[in-house]
Structures are given as structure tokens and as C-alpha cells.
């Protein structure tokens, strides 16, 4: 019986979207603005209906289990199915799974009205529209958009920085594309967590959280032992490392000045050298 409702649901979905399964008329959040009279027009509900406040779009991290929640009131003995719009594929019906991809699981607690589609180890290719469908006659459905993102961690000026002894090491770590600011960012030096209260002193961190999170590691009056690998490790993103060289009287091709990476030799001087070499003058 569950399979029959699922098949009816898929046929109804195909009749709405076309055989290609291409969802036209997408709204600003990427979800098709389908017409479901019993859900969208605010009429008195008779029979099953969706609680859209608890059935929203989801942003998930690559590799971290994602959950799409569908809350259905007055379901009765109807069956809830999950359908992936990308290929019009019936993923689950009731608590049964109808895909060979075992990452997809249907979860339902009989004491709740929530039907959850759980996706283990999601990848960016799993992003797209998913529909929670109820096996009424005709079937009704509510669409949600799953966005699977991979946070990006960068350290400005890397992978190597050269600074003069006695100046300030200023490392800036930037975390982007994270669904929420990282709860914590760890800085390490040679794989050991930096102790800001160490006898050395002059070491501090300034972190600004937001849609893009920035963390600044400041090491004043740099000394030779301050050279080495520094790693920025956000709690919800991949770590990133940079190699710092503290120099005494040496002049490499690149130096850090006030947190910026600059060429020591002007481009005009380099061009002049090339011209002299070519002309033999």
C-alpha cells in the first residue's frame, strides 16, 4: 500500500513538473512556487496539511549529516514520501527506503508529526529541491531546498610569510561559506595550541564573527623561535596553515609589512633587468 501511494505521488509530481523534472518558476530561495490551494491560500484545512514553519530550507556542511524536516498535521492513515526533484526519484515512502543509496533514511517518531529525511555524508551534488508528499487524492506536497556547502578557510598572504625580527607577526584567518560562525577557532604553532598567557607575552587573538568570520593572531616583537608553521583550525571548517620565517638582516623576495605581502624589488627594476639582458647593454 505504501508503495502504491508513493507511485501515485511520483506520477502526480511528473504531471506538475513535466517529464524532464525541471522545476520552472523558482522563487527567490530557489524553491518552485507551486500552487497548493489547501496550503498556500490560508483556507480552512480539511485533512492533512503542512506546518511550513517547521518544514524549511536547510543548509548543511559537506560530510555532516543533514536533516530535512516535514511536519504534517492531521495525517490520519496517509503515507508520507520524500521525492528528489533532480531526477524525480522516490527516496522513501513511510519508513521504507526506495533507493539503493543507503545514505538516505526516513525517520519518524510515532509520538510526533515530524517526518525526517536524513542524509548521511552529504556532498555538494546533493544540493537541490526535495519534496515531502502526502498520499491524498490528489497528492499534496511541500518543497524544500537543501544547500550543501563546504566552508573555506584561508590565511591571507600564505603559504609562506617573511618578516623582520622585532616586528609584529599579523596572521589573518578567514572562514567563508559556513552556515553559522565557527563556535571556536584554535591557533597552533608547531601543532601545539598557542598559550596566550605564556611568559613570552605579546601574543593575542582578535576574532570577528559574522557571515564571514575573521581571526587575527598577533605576535609582537618577533624572535627567531617564533618561526615555523602556524595553523588556524575553525571548529566547523578545515584547518589552514602558513609557514612564517623570522629573519635577521636577510632580504628575501617577499616581506610582510604591516600585515601585507609586498615585493621587495619594484616591478620597474625587474623589467629593466630583463631589457638589459635581452639587448646586451
UniProtKB/TrEMBL annotation:
Keywords: Signal. Residues 48-134, 151-243 form the Ig-like domain. GO terms for biological process: synapse organization. Coiled coil: none annotated. GO terms for cellular component: neuron projection membrane. InterPro entries: Ig-like_dom (IPR007110), Ig-like_dom_sf (IPR036179), Ig-like_fold (IPR013783), Ig_sub (IPR003599), Ig_sub2 (IPR003598), Ig_V-set (IPR013106), Zig-8 (IPR037448). Residues 1-19 form the signal peptide. The keyword Signal applies. It comes from the Eukaryota. It holds the Pfam family Ig_3. This is Neurotrimin. It comes from Papilio xuthus (Asian swallowtail butterfly).
Amino acid at each position: 500500500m505504501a508503495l502504491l501511494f508513493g507511485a501515485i505521488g511520483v506520477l502526480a509530481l511528473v504531471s506538475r513538473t513535466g517529464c524532464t523534472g525541471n522545476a520552472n518558476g523558482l522563487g527567490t530561495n530557489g524553491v518552485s512556487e507551486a500552487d497548493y490551494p489547501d496550503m498556500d491560500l490560508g483556507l480552512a484545512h480539511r485533512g492533512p496539511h503542512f506546518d511550513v514553519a517547521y518544514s524549511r530550507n536547510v543548509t548543511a556542511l559537506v560530510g555532516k549529516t543533514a536533516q530535512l524536516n516535514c511536519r504534517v498535521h492531521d495525517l490520519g492513515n496517509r503515507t508520507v514520501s520524500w521525492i528528489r526533484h533532480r531526477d524525480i526519484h522516490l527516496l522513501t515512502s513511510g519508513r521504507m527506503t526506495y533507493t539503493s543509496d543507503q545514505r538516505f533514511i526516513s525517520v519518524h517518531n510515532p509520538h510526533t508529526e515530524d517526518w525526517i529525511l536524513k542524509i548521511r555524508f552529504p556532498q555538494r551534488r546533493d544540493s537541490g529541491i526535495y519534496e515531502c508528499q502526502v498520499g491524498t487524492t490528489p497528492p499534496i506536497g511541500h518543497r524544500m531546498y537543501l544547500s550543501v556547502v563546504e566552508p573555506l578557510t584561508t590565511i591571507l598572504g600564505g603559504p609562506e610569510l617573511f618578516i623582520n625580527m622585532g616586528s609584529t607577526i599579523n596572521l589573518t584567518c578567514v572562514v567563508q561559506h559556513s552556515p553559522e560562525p565557527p563556535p571556536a577557532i584554535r591557533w597552533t604553532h608547531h601543532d601545539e595550541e598557542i598559550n596566550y598567557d605564556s611568559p613570552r607575552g605579546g601574543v593575542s587573538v582578535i576574532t570577528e564573527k559574522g557571515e564571514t568570520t575573521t581571526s587575527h593572531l598577533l605576535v609582537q616583537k618577533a624572535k627567531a623561535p617564533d618561526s615555523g608553521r602556524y595553523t588556524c583550525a575553525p571548529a566547523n571548517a578545515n584547518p589552514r596553515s602558513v609557514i612564517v620565517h623570522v629573519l635577521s638582516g636577510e632580504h628575501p623576495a617577499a616581506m610582510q609589512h604591516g600585515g601585507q605581502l609586498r615585493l621587495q624589488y619594484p616591478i620597474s627594476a625587474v623589467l629593466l633587468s630583463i631589457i638589459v639582458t635581452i639587448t646586451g647593454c
